[in-house]
Amino acid sequence: MHTLILHQTPIEYRNESSQKPPQNVQESAQISAEQILQAAKNNTATLWRGDFHQGKQLLAALKKRVRKPSKPAATPAEIFHKHRLAQSQQSREINMLLVEVGVNFTVDLPRAPDVQAALLDVYGVANTEAFLLPFNQLLGFIGAHEWHKQGVPISALGGDKIHVPFGVFSPLRGEYLDLVQQIRLPENCHTAFDIGTGSGVLAAILARRGVANIIATDNNPRAVLCARENIARLGLVNQIKVLQQDFFPDGVANVIVCNPPWLPAKPTSAVETALYDPNHSMLHGVLREAAAHLAADGELWLIMSDLAEHLGLRDSGSLQQWFAEYGWHIAAQSHTVPSHRKATDERDPLAFARQKECTYLYCLQKNSFQAA
Predict the structure, then answer these.
(1) Order of strands across the sheet with 328-336?
(2) DSSP string of 160-206, one letter each residue
(3) Which residues contact 24 (CB under 8 A, 6 or more apart)?
(4) How far is CA 161 from CA 205, 287, 290, in A?
(5) What is the pLDDT of residues 191-210, one digit of tens each?
(6) Cα–Cα–Cα angle for 251, 252, 253, nearest 5°?
(7) CA 298 to CA 318: how far, in whole Å?
């Protein structure tokens, strides 16, 4: 736990990012974005004491000031790394504007909304002592809470919704879910493991396809709770069990499905671990260990994008090489192109790569397969 000194008294500082906390904090009810940035250079955060909506306007002005065009880069990988570095630096500066959250998740500012439900969604239990939080993250929590209540309709589930709270990866990219719904199942497929289940959406799709016994695992407690709630909401508790653990449960399955992080880079927050994984460590772990957890003639289903290749972060053909090195061959595969907003946004610094991206579902079988 990190603390700052406010009125000569320690107060907890919370930040969902891995950023280092500021050393000092100043208070203000009237300050400019430029003054906040000047204080930030001295590692001093600003605690907002003014009107809530004026604070939102100040935050918007702060974002405009910190979002500067990055310097030209020579290679796709350099473009990506400079973009990530710029995002990190900008996020830290934006998070230098703080708000105090009182006991039971109250915000004592003029025109402040009731944020108790949103913060309960994030932290699980009410706080008994005040803490400081980046204003921008508070707004993110509020927005995530609304998305959680609203839910995301999933075409592969017939339009039924998956509800996702802050801190769990949301299945907004429906195209890869359709691949799992459409690909043929192995014969006599009775059991499945969903590794890194997140919201539980892949397990739900397999259950709707008739797989009778599914175990879904995740090491993120927020994801485990989220998946259990979604499974219950969809009426699939008799088919799916959700466990909090790394990788594989005991026993064997006819199908193991995994959607590992697609980009080999360092995450900067818990939710980013669904997107970024240095050196593809989860992918290698699954390829190395999955065969011991497959029934005879079972299949490992991997969902992977080729975005890393277009960004120069992975050599073309590396996936197929790794499959061979770990003793797998491709029994079937399908692919699709992204339909999300960023795929067609020319303002995105990574648009040059996103426009070429394909997402693949690889159905892998072990060479000279022997039952575990």
Answers:
(1) 240-244, 213-218, 191-195, 253-258, 294-305, 359-366, 328-336
(2) -EE---TTS-----THHHHHHHHSPPPTT--EEEEET-TTSHHHHHH
(3) 4, 5, 42, 43, 44, 45
(4) 12, 31, 30
(5) 999 999 999 999 999 999 99
(6) 135
(7) 23
- What are the pLDDT digits (tens) for 286-341? 999 999 999 999 999 999 999 999 999 999 999 999 999 999 999 999 999 987 77
Which residue do the tokens 């290679």 mark?
Answer: 75
- SS3 breakdown of the chain: % helix, strand, coil, rounded to 5? 35, 25, 40
- In terms of Cα–Cα distance, which of 108, 78, 111, 137 is closest to 311? 78
Distance between CA 97 and CA 40 in Å, rounded?
9
Place of tokens 């772990």: 285
d(CA 116, CA 99): 14
Angstrom CA distances, 222 to 84, 146, 205, 215, 274, stand at: 25, 17, 20, 17, 13
Give the number of residues written for the chain.
372
State the pTM of this model: 0.92
Q: Could you give the count of Cα atoms lying within 13 Å of 247 in the half-sphere of its Cβ?
A: 17
Ranges of the chain whose pLDDT falls below 70: 69-71, 369-372
Set out the domains of the chain in order of their start, with CATH numbers.
2-147 (no CATH), 153-366 (3.40.50.150)
Contact present, 121 and 145 (Cβ < 8 Å): yes
C-alpha separations of 147 from 93, 134, 162, 258, 342 in Å: 26, 20, 10, 25, 19
Instruction: Give bridge partners of residue 106 from the DSSP assignment.
Output: 102
Q: How far apart are CA 134 and CA 106, in angstroms?
A: 15
Question: What is the per-residue pLDDT for 371?
Answer: 40
Is the separation of the CB atoms in 16 and 10 below 8 Å? no
Query: Cα(369)–Cα(295) distance, rounded to whole angstroms?
Result: 9
